[in-house]
Amino acid sequence: MRRELRLSGFGGQGIMLAAVVLGRAAVMYDHTYAVQTQVYGPEARGGASMAAVVIDDNPILYPKVTDPDLLVIMSQEGFEKYGANARPDALMLLDRGLVHSRPDCAYIEVPATDDARSVLKKVIVANIVMLGALVAATGVVSREAIERAVLDQVPKGTEDLNLRALRQGYVRGEEARR
Amino acid sequence: MTRIEFMQGNAASAEGALAAGCRFFGGYPITPSTEVAELMARKMPKLGGVFVQMEDEIASIAAVIGAAWTGKKAMTATSGPGFSLMLENIGFAIMTETPLVIVNVQRGGPSTGQPTMSAQGDMLQCRFGSHGDMAILALAPDSVQEMYDLTVKAFNLAERFRCPAFLMADEIIGHMRERIDVPDRVEVVDRKPFVPGRLPFEADDDRVPGFPTFGQGHHTHVTGLTHDARGYPVTTDPAMHDALVRRLVGKVEDARREIADYRVTNPDAEVVFICYGAPARTVRQLVADRPDDGIGVLRLRLVWPFPEHALAEFPNARAFVVPEQNLGQIAREVERHVRVPVIPVSKLGGELHTPDELARVYEEVRAR
Predict the structure, then answer these.
(1) Is it true that the peptide bond before A68 is cis, omega within 30 degrees of 0?
(2) Is B262-366 a domain of CATH 3.40.50.920?
(3) pTM exceeds 0.90, yes or no
(4) Thinking of the domain B2-183, which architecture would CATH place it in?
(5) What are A123-141's pLDDT values in tens digits?
(6) Do domains B2-183 and B262-366 have the same CATH topology?
(7) Residue A31 carries which DSSP code?
(8) Inter-chain contact B116–A41, Cβ cutoff 8 Å?
């Protein structure tokens, strides 16, 4: 099944990294197919950044996300630009502390930045918390795959922090499923 | 054997170049091609090769030409504005029969245009941009896999024909990441060696001379002026110029059928899409979404020399539809060779044609 994800936030939050990790998890460890694309404009350094991932069991022909069924939104500007027109049957994960609006589609409020700051003591891993929540809530990739892909991509010495961030995200994702 | 990777298109091009034996990269960073240079800067020194960031694109292509004459397989990567600056020396490389590869990750033009947005607006520039009559080789990848495979192929063609070969990528394919199966080894073609006792520009039956590498004592004179088989300028002999230019063009153009590289889908089709690069992904999606329609596709991997004979693979074609990220550059080439309508589907601005957009065009053309 083809799944289309769109991720948006502000430059520096690690939106691109999250998208790359997700695609890598799907291809390298779940042995499916994935295409990751992103907006390369000056938005990437401040403003609303956006990345997209297509995941499919079969080879992916059309590589772009046009109408995502999963959205990860980590800033208010990102919501307005890339989340507000989400289709009605989509699912959105949004950062509870940073996004004030709520969509018409189903959504999960994830305190990703709050958890990163207060539980993990590093705000920079908010994107990884969000990835954990996404995986726990949707199963879009497996937990083993996302963990291995995170470890591939993060700097040496931060492996433990990032794994804890992922697991904090799992907890949030599981709460939402209940 | 292959190994699976999740890789960016530009990185795949650099990896393909290294696998093909590229050991010199001279370049100047420009969006959306910069990642090719970045990866080369990291990896080239470890392989004993040379990476140089030059002061601009004119110097970059000059350095690449010089490196090629020392026997190295050499390349650069750029985008439209840099490619424009390189045109003069591209002509020099053609005239001096210098094998080299240029990766052009196309962005919106003219001029500096849209640095981060995709385009295919340089397809005629690469063919005709330098002055004088000429032939070149140009490949157009539609996936990360082909960024790798066709970069290897570009080197092999450049070496075989002693002619510049261009990987005419686009921002979409260059920047996206997807699965790639990286081969353990690739087939590599090396330029024909110079045979001592012969003249440095004395061609064989294939009209390609052996390569008299600098530093091996051949005392070769290399000039952009019209030259004789020794390499010395002879600029007012009409017959000599005629023979030289016809040889330089003919060695590539006459191999058109043999080196043609394209994919045919549904040859019985009445409506046939002709595509290359990123829009080919949309066309393939359209065909997969409508399996009962038998939509024809001619997907070009080698765009220049244009495989005009491939059009005859669709004997029932009533119309050719050509989606491009330009105002119909290859559609114009198709028109030269067929008598049925050729319908360009031009999309500018950087976004990829959607399957819905092409479906609408298809419905309209089919109903005619």
Answers:
(1) no
(2) yes
(3) yes
(4) 3-Layer(aba) Sandwich (3.40)
(5) 999 999 999 999 999 999 9
(6) yes
(7) -
(8) yes
